[in-house]
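Q: Give me the 3D complex with magnesium ion.
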Amino acid sequence: MKVAFARKGQVLVVRLFGELDEHAALGARTSIDDRLRRGGQHLLFDFRKLTFMDSTGIGLILGRYKEIHPVGGMLAYFGADRQVQRLLKISGLLRIGKLYATEEEALLALKKEGGSKG
Amino acid sequence: MKNFVKVEFPAESCNESLSRALAAAFVSEADPTVSELSDIRTAVSEAVTNAIVHGYGGKGGTIYMTMQREERKITITIQDIGCGIQDIEKAKEPFFTTAPQDERSGMGFAVMEAFTDAFYVESRPGEGTKIVLVKHLSE
Ligand SMILES: Nc1ncnc2c1ncn2[C@@H]1O[C@H](COP(=O)(O)OP(=O)(O)O)[C@@H](O)[C@H]1O
Ligand SMILES: [Mg+2]
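A: Here is the predicted complex, encoded as structure tokens.
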């Protein structure tokens, strides 16, 4: 698995490539946390190039949410296929973060909501 | 059409993807839909990961996997001779995990349930765990 990042204002876009399972999770977690320490308040997960995910990915996303939430961070996702959408749904991740169709939509919404919170 | 395969492999995390690939290869002969294939890969990944991280506690061991096909019915078993499960009903509850420090979500069994047509857990503390995953492929 590969993880790439893009910083868009206060949003850190996390692009996941390949398969996110238990074998890949520790590496992904470390690289996201390292990058998050260098800045970014909100997290936007890009699932377009994610070819596989299981409940380990749920744990990874929840773990990152626990880090940004206390400092007012929001969570959002885009590009999820059917399998990832089902995982987000049954794990309650759709209640703590919103799923968007495109990156532009997600960024716009995060900017709006982030702004209204001050 | 009937077929079966039996394999065993070490309980190492690199074999999580191998086990998914094995299941996909076995099922592909039955011409499953894309969703059926990804459901099976996901359920297998959950069971194998549990055997590695919980059953053998990350210390290694052997995982036994069988795959059976009877017409459109696929049955996959994943077995470890690890620590076993104290309370199976409790373990199946969504968000229940004995390893929160590793960011386990406790959603593995819930995912197996959602992605299969039936699944069974046989386990005895100190003896190990066997997971049976059943999926009926569409015609
Ligand atoms: N093969 C196994 N051997 C021993 N314990 C297991 C096994 N599979 C599952 N368990 C127990 O069941 C619990 C719930 O499993 P699961 O739903 O996959 O969540 P998670 O893996 O995130 O903890 C685990 O935390 C563990 O205590
Ligand atoms: Mg699990």
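A quick observation: Chain A touches chain B through 21 residues (CB under 8 Å).
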